[in-house]
Amino acid sequence: MVIDPHTHILPEAYLDDIRGGRLGDAVSIERVDGQEWLVMRANIFGKDRETRNILTEPYYSLAPRFKDMERMGVERQVLSVSPFMTLYWLDAGLNKEVAASINDGLSALAREYPDKFSCMAQVPLQDPAAAAAELERAAGNGHIGVQIAANVAGGNLDDPGLDVFWEKAVSLDLPIFIHPQGQAASPERLQDYYLRNFIGNPLDTTIAVASLIFGGVLDRFPDIKFYLSHVGGFVPWIRGRWQHGYGERPEPKVHGAKDPEEYFEKFYYDTIIHNADCLEFAVKTLGADRIVYGTDYPADMGNHQPAEEIPGLSRFSEADREKILSGNAKKLYKL
Question: Which of 140, 159, 164, 238 has the fewest CB atoms within 10 Å of its CB?
């Protein structure tokens, strides 16, 4: 069995809510030249901004998804909503309603196709208590994890106010999937060449991990489970710099964090790096027990080739390939 826990979908029921004007001007669907666009308007880094994402069929239609799963050799997807729909900049009360709509749509898909889908919840993390409550409700409806963004409307994940949410995730024994949004740096510097994804996304994840380590979150919640997109951003490649700096500077120790090398094995990392040598390095240094197959389906920056053909996978033993393609996900999500 090949399990893909990094795959996104926009449930049709949720899209119907948007088409019905439930979110007003904050999130809407516009039709231009026969093509639908998901439009989001927000104040980000002090400026009003509008982002547009084209609604292609694989984001909502199941027919092409099932066809691609067969072609890629994926037997089960753990569905999460498209990460740009975390909407932490919305009014918290409205986002609570949005998260509930998303989660009900995801759990309905998992119930309808139990042999194909499991699902991860969405939560209004700008209100940590409400996020904890929605996570508990979603878990009761069959969600086996939760997806969060790598920052909360620009705030880092070491904010003590989030502890109520971490505590709930630990008590429910649900893994937390951290996905970037490309908002880790000034958008002006990343607006060209798709740098908001090429650089912004992995940087966003990297800042999140550093905040969790040096902010003491992993010490306050030693049983917490985090799963990182895109092989953890820059984390595997920059860890030596963190280790050196920890020995030279007082700032990393202000919250009592231990040697950073003690924390890397606490995370799970997916396989999306698109380079055989890099994947080999990640497996060698992080351990085959911590690497989870992922595709980011249907995003254009994901792994869309057959699972056995992702760059570098053939270099590992059969036992390690089994762990990466299914065993680690089964353990993490209790499948």
Answer: 140
In a domain, 46, yes or no: no
Report the alpha-carbon angle 227-229-232, nearest 5.
Answer: 85
* CB contact at 8 A, 333 and 268: no
DSSP line for 22-84? TTTTTEEEEEETTEEEEEEEEEETTEEEEEEEE--GGGT-HHHHHHHHHHHT--EEEEEE-GG
The CATH number for 208's domain is: 3.20.20.140
Give the range of the structural domain holding residue 133, as residue numbers without chain letter: 3-25+57-333
Report the SS3 class of residue 310: coil
Distance between CA atoms of 335 and 320, rounded to whole angstroms? 18
Strands annotated E in 174-239: 176-179, 226-228
- The tally of domains found in the chain comes to 1
Distance, in Å, from the CA atom of 329 to the CA atom of 334, rounded to the nearest integer, reads 8
Residue 319 resides in a domain: yes
In a domain, 250, yes or no: yes
**Could you read off the pLDDT of 80-136 as tens digits, one per residue?**
998 888 888 888 888 898 899 999 999 999 999 999 999 999 999 999 999 999 999
133 class by beta-carbon count within 10 Å (0-12 exposed, 13-18 middle, 19+ buried): middle
Looking at the domain assignment, is residue 42 inside a domain? no
Q: Are 303 and 271 in contact (CB under 8 A)?
A: yes
Q: What is the pLDDT of residues 11-66, one digit of tens each?
A: 988 888 888 877 667 788 888 888 888 887 766 656 677 777 788 888 889 999 99
Task: Take residue 229 and report the two structure tokens written for it.
Answer: 């997109």
